[in-house]
Design goal:
Elements: H1 3-18, E1 22-23, E2 26-27, H2 30-37, H3 41-53, E3 57-60, E4 64-67, H4 70-80, H5 89-111, H6 114-130, H7 136-156, H8 160-183, H9 192-207, H10 211-231
Antiparallel strand pairs: 1-2, 3-4
Length: about 250
Amino acid sequence: MNDKRRQVIEKLLEKINSGEVVSQDKLLPERRLAEVVGETRPVVREGLIALEAMGVLDIRDRQGIYLSSTEENEAKMMLHKVRGWPADMLSRVMEVRQIVEPPATAIAAVRRDEKDLTKMRECLRNLRELVEEGGEEAAQQSLIWNTAFHTVIVESAENAYLSRLYEGIHAVAEHSLSLMRIRTSPEKEGGRRSVYQDHLKLFERIEARDSAGAELCAEEHLRHSINAMVELGQIVPASDLFGQKLIGQARLL
């Protein structure tokens, strides 16, 4: 994320948290937000799209800009507590990701709309900017946009129960995914360059409404993450359901 966009996002978050630009969970119109933040409307619009992709805002066509529901925010806080679960939980979570994500991606390729694609592009743009940056902060920022990208895909499937399930999956996995990105060189499986390329392929298949291709890309991306996590000892090899041909396209061969 470039410095200008980061500063705008931080300004917006400060104004939101202080309540200065919020009334009954609805933000001021975009023009007024630009005046309060002291930026142009196009720059503020980019920041708003980024915050929507992160799950902070809900931009509703012809209705305005709203905070994400209190219920959703409370759910996310509760889900973060599951980090205290047993160590083998990550292996189990990765198994669930293999079961859930590819079919969800296939559905998203059919049901997505232009608003969903705009959110995905914002995530990809930030992931691309972080590809060559090293260090823990870049890895953490990359993880934020990685999670946002996958969340947008699942939400594009338009199934609220699926979205809630996915929130729980990533709440458990995100810390270990962050460590993996720090410990994995960018060009290797699971590294930031590899992840960006995987995401770009996913987006292209979803944009083209290629349901089968999107599902295959989701499987390939998960295989890369699984291989990296097994190599680092974060999950057990037995949790690779694709490799055992228990699920996925490989089982049909």
